[in-house]
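Field log, afternoon session.

UNIT: design team B
ACTIVITY: writing a sequence onto a fixed backbone
BACKBONE:
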């Protein structure tokens, strides 16, 4: 880090406090101070400036960006704080300053969840304009599994209570369906399948971008390498043989 000035929201994002957009909301709300003064949008800071959020000192000078892939167990929430005292995914992780979940998986869902100290990565993975694919394995309730014809309706698009929704791909697998989304609305896979008359008993996220869950057991995690991060953000550049192996191993383990 040089002595050059940077936007305050970028400093907060580097510290893992929030994405740049969310950091702007913190600044607008008057929750951020620089050298004891309430900051405003457009403020720039240098490495020697004291930045605080809600009175807590934000230190970024020596912060090393780190990202983990966690197999989120069912029953854990991904919100930073939970008013009901439920288990939080951060309790399953090492105590890394600034670590936060990237997006959400609802409490009852399982599978691949990313946690990072990199606010810019969080923005890239959660902003709708980037459309990173996510693959889910759903086990449905009832004697009849979703049919090809029913699942084609998900690709064509169906109406939910918060607007139209569509899957990039949906195909039947024993006991349920394998659904690929390019967006991540609240409980979307569950609601889409329920709209077809197939409530979901269990939901497991298998892939985000170019990363597969692999054979991690619930509660296990691993730190991502530079290669992992590249594959995550650039799935089209993953060598075909590596992609096919990761997909096969994940589906054999969990599909």
């Amino acid at each position: 880090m040089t002595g050059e000035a940077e936007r305050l929201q970028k400093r907060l994002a580097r510290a893992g406090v929030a994405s740049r957009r969310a950091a702007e909301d913190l600044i607008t709300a008057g929750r951020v101070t620089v050298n004891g003064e309430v900051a405003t949008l457009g403020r720039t800071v240098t490495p020697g400036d004291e930045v605080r959020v809600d009175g807590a000192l934000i230190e970024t000078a020596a912060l090393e960006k780190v990202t983990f892939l966690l197999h989120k167990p069912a029953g854990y929430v991904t919100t930073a704080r939970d008013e009901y005292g439920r288990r939080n995914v951060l309790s399953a992780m090492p105590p890394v300053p600034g670590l936060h979940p990237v997006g959400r998986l609802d409490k009852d869902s399982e599978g691949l969840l990313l946690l990072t100290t990199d606010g810019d990565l969080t923005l890239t993975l959660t902003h709708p304009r980037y459309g990173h694919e996510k693959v889910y394995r759903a086990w449905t309730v009832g004697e009849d599994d979703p049919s090809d014809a029913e699942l084609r309706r998900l690709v064509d698009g169906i109406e939910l209570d918060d607007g139209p929704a569509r899957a990039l791909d949906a195909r039947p697998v024993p006991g349920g369906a394998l659904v690929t989304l390019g967006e991540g609305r609240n409980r979307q896979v569950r609601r889409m399948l329920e709209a077809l008359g197939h409530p979901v008993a269990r939901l497991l996220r298998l892939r985000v971008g170019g990363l597969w869950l692999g054979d991690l057991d619930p509660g296990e995690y691993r730190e991502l390498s530079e290669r992992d991060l590249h594959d995550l953000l650039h799935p089209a550049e993953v060598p075909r043989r590596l992609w096919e192996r990761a997909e096969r191993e994940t589906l054999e383990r969990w599909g």
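LOG NOTE: The CA atoms of residues 143 and 175 lie 9 Å apart.
NEXT ACTIVITY: expression trials, pending approval
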